[in-house]
Amino acid sequence: MINKKHFSASNIIFVVLMILVVITWLNPSAKVELIRGLMAVGAFKPDPDDYARNHKETVSLPNYSYRDASGNIISISGLKDKVVFVNYWATWCPPCLAEIPSINKLFSKFKNNANIVFLMVDTDNDLLKSAAYLKNNHYNLPLYTSVNTFPDALLDGTIPTTLIFGKDGKLKYKHTGAADYDSDKFNEFLEKEAK
């Protein structure tokens, strides 16, 4: 008598999930889409209130500079009295690429607010490549590279990393890893900080 093995629904789901894991592990574009899909269902929501509750240390705007594609240099310490949104990213980083659409939406909402400055910092210092990526994907974000080494206390080498300094020059929010910044809560946080 021949024993027929039947695939149960759980076995089929397991095999499909394993195939998806392998595909996302081997294909960076698939990782980006997976993270964006998770964002769409409510994952990766940043919580500025949680950051404020759990981080009591006072960090101020460092004396640090960035350069744009035209060679103009902006000093972050000279941006006191403004909310400064700094995002460190790279074109090869799937979590970075996954969060850029939400940052672009956030930037579109606040780009005319003179009290908020956005700095998208390419960690590879390859402005041509990163500018091409932004342009090809119809993102209108202000692009910069670092002029000197950023303090390890604020940037430990993990990307993406987002830092937000308040008008008082103090660090109000820090997040490493992907986040969906186009949320009502995060919009309210920026509006409150910009007043």
UniProtKB/TrEMBL annotation:
Keywords, A to Z, come to: Cytochrome c-type biogenesis, Membrane, Redox-active center, Transmembrane, Transmembrane helix
| Alphabetized GO MF terms | oxidoreductase activity
The family database entries (CDD domains) matched by this protein are listed as:
TlpA_like_family (cd02966)
- This protein's GO CC annotations: cell envelope
The Gene Ontology biological process annotation of the record reads: cytochrome complex assembly
Q: Does the keyword Transmembrane helix apply?
A: yes
- State whether keyword Heme applies: no
Instruction: Show the stretches that span the lipid bilayer.
Output: 7-26
Taking every annotated instance into account, which residue ranges of this chain make up the domain Thioredoxin? 55-195
Can you say where in the cell this protein is located?
A: Cell envelope
The name on file for this protein is TlpA family protein disulfide reductase
